[in-house]
Amino acid sequence: MGSSSTTTSATFSLVMLFLLLQHDHFATADTSLIQKTCKATKYYALCMSSLKSNPTSLTADGKGLAAIIVGIATANATATSSYLSSQVLSSANDANAKKVLKECADKYGYAGEALQGSLQDLAAESYDYTYMHITAAADYPNACHNAFRRFPALVYPPELARREEALRRICSVVLGIIDSFGWD
What are 40-49's pLDDT values in tens digits? Predict the structure, then answer.
């Protein structure tokens, strides 16, 4: 019985070693897809950090990686819309500021909706429409920035400028990934 127990233990150890080696092989293969995908974008570091922060990226294909980044962009647009809505409440005395902040909250809301639409197009492999929705989402913050320009007394908030740039860069990453599909 001692020999059988030793054989079982050795077999178990070999199976575990094999599984660990296979896992490392798959993890390396998935990481290489992420790296290859991110190299096709303008913001490699942003792409890599975004995808590494999401554990599902290790098992995703190219479309899945694009969808993960779209999810991050959607979260950015939604959070910015909420942030702007809260700023409307705190600017109770300035009618122009309230008007512009409300307009900006709406624009970021539209960006979020465009990003949601892009996910449906991405799933259907309608990359031209996906591209159009992502481009629109990246452009909505420009309309917000322009709204501030209409009122020279209003200062474009640095926090909003930071969020605008972040959304623009995240959208650029998605567009780079879609370009790598070779659909045109």
Answer: 999 999 999 9
Structure tokens at 145: 């920035």
- Residue 77 half-sphere exposure toward CB, CA atoms < 13 A: 31
Q: Rounded to whole angstroms, how far apart are CA atoms 111 and 140?
A: 6
> Residue 162, exposed/middle/buried by CB under 10 A (0-12, 13-18, 19+)?
exposed
Q: Specify the DSSP element, H or E, that contains 70.
A: helix 62-90
Copy the structure tokens of residue 159.
């926090």
User: CA-CA distance, 110 to 137, in Å (whole number)?
Assistant: 7
Residue 18: pLDDT over 50: no
Answer whether 0.85 is exceeded by the pTM.
no
Q: Which two tokens stand for residue 48?
A: 């890599």
pLDDT tens-digit readout, 89-138: 887 688 999 999 999 999 999 999 999 999 999 999 999 999 999 999 99
Place of tokens 């969020």: 163
Task: Look up residue 41 and give its two tokens.
Answer: 């974008």
154 and 148 Cβ atoms separated by less than 8 Å: yes
Asked if residue 100 lies in contact with residue 149, where contact means CB atoms within 8 angstroms, the answer is: no
Count of residues making up the chain: 184
* 155 φ, ψ (degrees, to nearest 5): -95, 130
d(CA 156, CA 54): 32
